[in-house]
Amino acid sequence: MTSSSVVRASAAARAADARDPWRSRLTRADVRFAPYLFIAPFFVLFAIFGAFPLVYTGWVSLHDWHLIGDHTFVGLDNYTALFSDPDFWNALKNTVGIFVIATVPQLLMALGMANLLNRKIRARTFFRMGVLIPNVTSVAAVGIVFGQLFARDVGLVNYVITSLGLDAVDWQANTWSSWIAIATMVDWRWTGYNTLILLGAMQAIPKELFEAASLDGAAPWQQFWRITVPQLRPTLVFTVIISTIGGLQLFTEPVIFGNGRMLGGTLGQFQTVTMYMYETAFQRFQYGYGAAIAWALFGLIVVFSLINLLIVRRAAR
Amino acid sequence: MSQTKRFLAVTVAAVTALGMVGACSKNTDDAKPAADGQVKLVVDTFGDFGYKALVAQYQQEHPNVKVELRSVQKLDDYKPKLTQYLAAGTGAGDVVALEEGILNEFKTQPQNFVNLLDQGAADLQPNFLPWKWELGRVGTDGPLIGLGTDVGGLAVCYRKDLFAKAGLPTDRDAVSKLWPGWDEFIATGKKFSAAKTGAKGFVDSVTTSFSAMLSQAGDTNFYDRDNKLIADSNPVVRQSWETSMKMVSEGVSAKVPTWSKDWEAGFKNGSFAVTMCPSWMLGIIKTNSGPANAGKWDVASVPGGGGNWGGSWLAVPTQSKHPKEAYELAKFLTSPEGQVAAFKEAGPLPSSPKALDDPAFLALTNDYFSNAPVGKIFGAGAKSLKPVVLGPKHQAVKERAFEPALQAVEQGKLTPDKAWQQALKSAVKEAK
Fold first, then answer.
1. Number of H helices, E strands in chain A
2. Residue A243's closest CA among A308, A299, A303, A178?
3. Which CATH number covers residue B65?
């Protein structure tokens, strides 16, 4: 289609050539360059807002760079320091930990909910739209509400726990409790989103498969595990990748949970990598070291995504 | 088509598009001339500086000036924001507040601020307490980057209703007599805790007391006069730490971290009966406690004698397009009359001896705090305050090394010894 229209255009150009050399040159230029002009906006915007900051951050990370002061070139010193920085490893442990305890239940719940929404139930559209509401709520609002729920003295969760006769939990004090509180916030926001994606994929599964299975006497439960889940595999992997990228950049929820501070608890119980990056660059003013953390995070996301990709490849085989 | 030609084509296309983007973004910013002689000034502060009425007055007296007040609630959020504005060379207010804990860090980069002496500020010197004036300068004869706003004279705010429940006196003079020193303060706290008033503890958290004790030292805290970190060897730090540890072990702390949800709600619910209150804290207590608790709070003197905790300066960033007008506004806001008006509105204690002697100031009472004669209470010791020598990263060392360590002990996560080691280790990191 494209090539034939180009051929036709070139023929027109050649015909025009005989009449008016200037116009013909314009026409030829149009044919040759117009496509690049049409795709240029994306590449220009990407260059300004994507590629440039990325490269510039890399450049900054090779310096000892005070945010409002001097900078000197130090090569890879920031990266070597990063590898022996216990605070960085602590932040990484928290990030991955919260990611795991948030994502696993989240995707299982999303799968279950998608399956329910795929049935013939009353007010189906209402429920389908409803699951997305937490996702369109502002993160800050979610953080503030959950911060109240998980407060030690005045929180609703502790009110319930103590009225059951158990001891109140100091949510921010322990690593496990703070992780659970933050994972709850993440799941509240993202379960519905993943539900809709999985629901979309479920509807693309041919009905014949289920009909044939019913004829062979497969129970609904068996149909779900033998047909639905295997058919969903590529979509599941997609949701895992998206969750990975989001999870490794977790920031707003733990910040608001920790009263807006970057410390992530008294001993960094829930300080994530992005919080550590912000703290380093904008509170300690070590812009170069902060940039190194940013690049390390970028590298980690690439590694995680590659692992996911390998799993997809194997699954496809 | 050869490779190079194709590359050229892409480049041309990209550059053309880039040029268009550039052309669009231009001439929106610079094209703000004083159209009808109007000048717009932005004032950046944190918390409440009490400038609303003053700004209204200033605009009335200077019809060509329009002032916008921008405020961030927490100093912790304010500092990175201001830093980003300075680093980017744009975005900062024409007048910005610098708190004592962060002032020294900004003073290490004085090129970011207008030397107010060039604007004729030298004449203003008698308006300020000598040390307040000196601290606004870089070195002893460098540029002057800030005009003093307030000082942080110390007091204790207490809940009369909870004191009555615990069988303690409620009259402010009698309460002040309960605690000449910190040991008596702790003893009172134990008496209070034994009385079962429904409060979680006597004092909100040990971190506020720790800050008060440090500011009473009157000499040095974490840094010596040569800006060397001495947190591990300065007896003042160690002693304040040990008294704080005693408060935890004697169970007088409600263990509510400052600025947390539990802290904010604690004022309303009566989770604690006492908090340290430098005068700028009065506004915060009033906001958090709400109108329902009006008249329940009162102000008494602080255990262990006077000290200075907090206080700010107003500076003019060099990036301001109207440095002259900005200076005039800062001069007005920090004038003795301006300081009294600000105190009346939000509580920051004047740093001007003239304001402190002003009968109008001395006569001020605060109706929310049981009509406490706040002018007299805070003004009394203000002129004899001895400022603590704060190093370049005092705020960071205090708030990100020592306070989390204190809170970790309150949470039962660390033993006092481990917490002390942790605090020192973090202090070294923060001071780097």
1. 16, 2
2. A308
3. 3.40.190.10
Residues B136 and B236 in one domain: no
| CA distances (Å), origin B356, targets B276, B325, B348, B362, B422 | 22, 27, 12, 7, 42
Both structure tokens of A279: 């703290």
| DSSP H/E element including B194 | helix B182-194
Q: How far apart are CA B256 and CA B271, in angstroms?
A: 9
B363 at interface of A, judged by CB pairs closer than 8 A: no
| pLDDT above 90: residue A110 | yes
Looking at the structure, tell me whether residues A175 and A294 fall in a common domain. Answer: yes
A170 touching chain B per CB within 8 A: yes
pLDDT in tens, B295-347: 999 999 999 888 888 899 999 999 999 999 999 999 999 999 999 999 988 88
- Give the predicted TM-score (pTM) of the model: 0.82
∠A144-A150-A152 over CA atoms, to 5°?
Answer: 120
Same domain, residue pair B269 and B355: no
Kindly report the CATH number assigned to the domain that includes residue A103: 1.10.3720.10
Query: What is the number of other CB atoms lying within 10 angstroms of the CB of residue B8?
Result: 13
Claim to verify: residue B58 and residue B117 sit in the same structural domain: yes
Q: Do B287 and B328 lie in a common domain?
A: no
Place of tokens 């990975």: A244
- The Cα–Cα gap between B428 and B414 comes to 19
Q: How far apart are CA B381 and CA B226, in angstroms?
A: 28
Burial group, residue B344, by CB count within 10 angstroms (0-12, 13-18, 19+)? middle
Identify which of B269, B404, B408 has the shortest CB distance to residue A154: B269
- Chain A, window 3-32: residues with a beta carbon less than 8 angstroms from a chain B beta carbon: 32
- Average pLDDT value for residue range A79-85: 94
Average pLDDT, rounded, for chain A = 88
Residue with the two structure tokens 């058919």 = A231
Per-residue pLDDT tens digits for A143-175: 888 888 999 888 999 999 999 999 999 999 999
- Structural domains in chain B (count): 2
B86 touching A (Cβ < 8 Å): yes
Closest CA to B302 of B152, B402, B181, B141: B181
Interface test with A, best of B21, B255, B413 (most A CBs within 10 A): B413
Predicted complex ipTM: 0.79
**Rounded CA Rg of chain A:** 27
Domain assignment present for residue B234? The answer is yes
Q: In Å, how far are A199, A218, B77, B327 from A229, measured between CA atoms?
A: 12, 15, 46, 69
List alpha helices for B250-390, DSSP H.
Answer: 261-269, 281-289, 323-333, 336-346, 353-357, 359-362, 374-382
Domain that holds residue B104: 39-151+311-362
Q: What are the start-end ranges of the E strands in chain A?
A: 63-65, 71-73
CB atoms within 10 A of CB A34: 12
Distance from CA of B175 to the nearest CA of A (A): 28
How does residue B35 score in pLDDT terms, banded at 50, 70 and 90?
low
Count of structural domains within chain A: 2
Q: Inform me whether the C-beta atom of residue A67 falls under 8 Å from chain B C-beta atoms.
A: yes
Q: Do A154 and B262 touch (CB under 8 A)?
A: yes
| DSSP reduced 3-state for B150 | strand
Q: If we measure between CA atoms, which residue out of B149, B154, B157, B124 comes closest to residue B348?
A: B149
Same domain, A284 and A140: yes
